[in-house]
Amino acid sequence: MADMQGLVERLERAVSRLESLSAESHRPPGDCREVNGVNGGVAPSVEAFDKLMNSMVAEFLKNSRMLAGDVETHEYQEDRNDLVISETELKQVAYIFKCEKSTLQIKGKVNSIIIDNCKKFALVFDNVVGIVEVINSKDIQIQVMGRVPTISINKTEGCHIYLSEDALDCEIVSAKSSEMNILIPQDGDYREFPVPEQFKTAWDGSKLVTEPAEIMA
């Protein structure tokens, strides 16, 4: 924690220097000395900002979950099938980023779950009171053991969602995604239903009406 506090203090000093640099950048041409370790030029404030983002700011963002205890983060996990979040709270958000060929189980009840830039990733969870979001991912499997009101799929190729009996009222919202299937429990097994990917829109005389397009063989 002391290391994080020191990092925050360094970040605050860096931001102050960046603000000073922004003011310096309005000086007349030819008067661009070195500020914050970056040589002046056409846009020294931009260079300085990039330098900060690639150093202490990146370090701060990577470790920010230590300060914000409501966010549980799993990043860059590969070939792991033993990932478990067992101690959860209602206010917690689980953020899963760039995990591959792995499985995560979340027990209890959390606020929301975000799957971002993952491949061949499986998620099993008990209950979510808000939303489960899948973004920029590929080959995702989600199994709902309890309840979830909404699952959002965006810019994802391949997403299979296994709903529980208690989650049959879940709303699926999708955009710019393909190969999506919802599996519904029936007679001790699951029946698969594809999510429409193509739609047709027509003018009914007063408004546009959109509905799934039936592909004729």
TrEMBL record:
SMART domains noted in UniProt: CARP
GO cellular component terms, A-Z: cytoplasm
Entry-linked PROSITE patterns: C_CAP_COFACTOR_C, CAP_1, CAP_2
GO biological process: actin filament organization; cAMP-mediated signaling; cell morphogenesis
C-CAP/cofactor C-like domain location: 44-195
GO molecular function, one term: actin binding
Family membership: Belongs to the CAP family.
Protein name as it appears in the record: Adenylyl cyclase-associated protein
Source species: Callithrix jacchus (White-tufted-ear marmoset)
